[in-house]
């Protein structure tokens, strides 16, 4: 399999988390004891990708700082003999080759991806949203990369969601299912009303794309919300009878949406209770906590 690069758009304003995100990117909010975006980079590395571009907006310098070395902190931890914490600090700075570029103004996911054109070059690449976490126990990218290698088409991650939630996602119309479980994507629509949604298969934040996406994005007009939508560009690729098409991998594993306040809290709790160093203490406390609600009701 060829070497892929990963592109992580992280230029959104994070308004749902204000005032916490007034001066700190939502991708840097801690999920237990690591910022959300570190989980995403680790997922890329686990899939064999070590070349990562993070697309940031203004006031997001601390994303770059997190993946940089901090000699003063490392020296202090070495002096104290705290090898455990030293290892955690060094881990984030040695994870991958991290590159940073700015989007300028937040004009949509499609515009953010287009900013990666010169970085990507003529090779296929992966797009990973910085607030969408996939549990490491349920790897998704390897299957998506395999489908791309087989078909040459764009590959998107799909997940069945509650029909009441389809207005929050791009939604796919799919055709036949291949032997590897992937589906052919016939059409896409960005954030439809429930009554207009063609299915409950939502596009979640993982994509494998070829460079032809840039030719489409270059002329993609602003769509939903006045932004340049990646979904609209993928829809054009899916409709091209002479192109390689768009395919979907339906994900049934554990996923955490840290871009929503309630889901962010759920993600922290779910990941914490599964940790060897925290679960034994948290699980009985959670049972007692929930039992208090049941008693009150």
UniProtKB/TrEMBL annotation:
Domain Nucleotidyl transferase, residue spans: 5-270
UniProt-listed GO biological process terms: UDP-alpha-D-glucose metabolic process
InterPro entries per UniProt: GalU_uridylyltTrfase_bac/arc, NTP_transferase_dom, Nucleotide-diphossugar_trans
Keywords: Nucleotidyltransferase, Transferase
Reaction(s) the record says it catalyses: alpha-D-glucose 1-phosphate + UTP + H(+) = UDP-alpha-D-glucose + diphosphate
Homology family: Belongs to the UDPGP type 2 family.
Protein name: UTP--glucose-1-phosphate uridylyltransferase
Source taxonomy: Bacteria, Bacillati, Actinomycetota, Actinomycetes, Micrococcales
């Amino acid at each position: 399999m060829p070497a892929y690069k990963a592109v992580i758009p992280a230029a959104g304003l994070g308004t749902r988390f204000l005032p916490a995100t007034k001066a700190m990117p939502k991708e840097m909010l801690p999920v237990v004891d690591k910022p959300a975006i570190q989980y995403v980079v680790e997922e890329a590395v686990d899939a064999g990708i070590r070349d990562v571009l993070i697309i940031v907006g203004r006031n997001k310098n601390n994303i770059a700082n997190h993946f940089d070395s901090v000699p003063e902190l490392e020296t202090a931890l070495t002096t104290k003999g705290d090898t455990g914490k030293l290892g955690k600090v060094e881990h984030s700075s040695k994870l991958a080759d991290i590159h940073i570029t700015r989007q300028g103004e937040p004009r949509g996911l499609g515009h953010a991806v287009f900013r990666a054109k010169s970085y990507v070059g003529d090779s296929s690449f992966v797009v990973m949203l910085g607030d969408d976490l996939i549990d490491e126990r349920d790897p998704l990218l390897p299957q998506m990369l395999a489908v791309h290698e087989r078909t040459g088409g764009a590959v998107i991650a799909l997940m069945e969601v509650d029909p009441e939630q389809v207005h929050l996602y791009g939604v796919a119309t799919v055709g036949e299912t291949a032997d590897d479980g992937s589906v052919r994507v016939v059409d896409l629509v960005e954030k439809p009303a429930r009554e207009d949604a063609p299915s409950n298969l939502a596009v979640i934040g993982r994509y494998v794309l070829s460079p032809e996406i840039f030719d489409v994005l270059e002329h993609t007009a602003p769509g939903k919300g006045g932004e340049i939508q990646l979904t609209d560009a993928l829809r054009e690729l899916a409709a091209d009878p002479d192109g390689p098409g768009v395919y979907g991998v339906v994900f049934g594993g554990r996923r955490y949406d840290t871009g929503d306040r309630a889901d962010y809290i759920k993600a922290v709790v779910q990941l914490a209770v599964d940790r060897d160093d925290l679960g034994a203490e948290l699980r009985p406390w959670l049972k007692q906590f929930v039992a208090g609600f049941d008693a009150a009701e």
